[in-house]
Design brief:
Elements lengths: L25 H40 L5 E2 H6 L9 E6 L2 E6 L2 E6 L3 E6 L5
Antiparallel strand pairs: 1-5, 2-3, 3-4, 4-5
Bound molecules: zinc ion (ZN).
Length: 123
Amino acid sequence: METNPKQCLHCAKKIAGRTDKKFCNSHCRSSYHNHFYSDRSNYMRRVNGLLLRNRKILADLFALQRGGTTVPLSELYVKGFSPSHFTHQQQKDKNQLFTYCYEFGYQITEKNCIKIIQQTSIE
Ligand SMILES: [Zn+2]
């Protein structure tokens, strides 16, 4: 969008007076900022929602895992797991990359299976 300095950023009306003004009045200024910040927090809410859903899926599968058995990777996708959303990764060994959603991490093992672990402290 083109930003003409003589147009209000909120209502696009021509601004009278000083040419460095961005809004015609304080109402337009606060409306604009409220909209901007609510868009940003909506985005964060959606990402947080995906992360929490991923965490719940890993936590549920972890509880079912019993003694370190592996789970087919497809199980994650069936449950709606979003692999592109995670909190951090940890390289434990040369071929052991764990991807975490909060305290639950997973590693892709042979045959498209995953091993889920629970982190007990923040490293
Ligand atoms: Zn305005």
